Amino acid sequence: MRNERQFSIKTLIGVSAPNQVVPATGNLPLGVEINYSWTGLQRRAWEQCNCFARVGTYANYIGFGNPVALGRTAGAGLFFEPLIRYGHRTYFSVRASVGLTYVTRIYDPITNPTNRHVSLPVSSMIGLSVNGYYQLNSRFHLTVSGNYNHISNGGTRQPNQGLNLPSASLGLTYLTRTSPQPDTQLWTRTPLTRRWLARVLLLGSVRVLPQTATTPEMALPLFGLKLLAGYRLSSAHALSGGVEFVDDQYFREQVKQWRYVNQQYRQATLLAGYEFWHGRYLFTAHMGWNVVRPQPYKPATYQKYGLLYRLNNGLTFGFDVKAFGDDTKGFQLAGGMSF
């Protein structure tokens, strides 16, 4: 059975205006996005999440409504979109996306000091959307969406408050290739033959420490080791936990600047959380307890989100995002083995 192919276009209309900049215009962000995707209708694709799903690429252009302080952005990336009630005239989906975006106006201590949202021209954009579809005919589907996008450099350069972009969308999807939808009630799920999992990952990143009166701007590396074990509840869901060891030279310089006395800058963290598996792709979300750290340093907990890709031989690679609530603290490249 052939995969379906889709091309879509939609508007992006902001529902709130960024106001923590000078000048604050009050104008809403406006943009447009185009997407190309494919939907696997085979049994193997269905078994990944007990649903059909679209996987594809996007490109967007957004004006923030504030050309002086915030400017505009253009970006592209990948998305994964599980479909709900697919095959009915009205159906729904939840979409997660990740990509890179170019921002025309960034922080500058002299010319743009109040834009503390973005300090690198090329940053990451992650997004989540809830979508409703209505089939006008077999080829054209009307789309209504609620979107939440976030632009951040992951703490690579400060300041990095990040920029939140909640928006609503109206669009149209065109199916360039259609296929008869199989009757999934005739399929029986393939049982899991192996439920226990283990993973070893090496971590690495670079963060830029801002210039001070006594030190120059410095690009400083981070190296780490993550050890995880877990149990698969089903083909799509797993629980996992482990430990992470980090040697962060950026944090080492911060400890010096904070004048902590006789404190170890290296860190060890206990992790516990959830994993979503879709074929070779893994989305991980863990809570971390920073059990080894400089004692005056707070907070002692943080969140760790990851997107990984696993090959047949167990080789695994991707990236992690570390955050305290909605404050992104850093991106880390990850690579290793899954067992």
UniProtKB/TrEMBL annotation:
Record Pfam families: PagL
The record's Gene3D superfamilies line, in alphabetical order, gives: 2.40.160.20
Superkingdom of this protein's organism: Bacteria
Name the chain's protein.
Answer: Uncharacterized protein
Species of the source: Spirosoma montaniterrae
What does UniProt list as this organism's lineage? Bacteria, Pseudomonadati, Bacteroidota, Cytophagia, Cytophagales
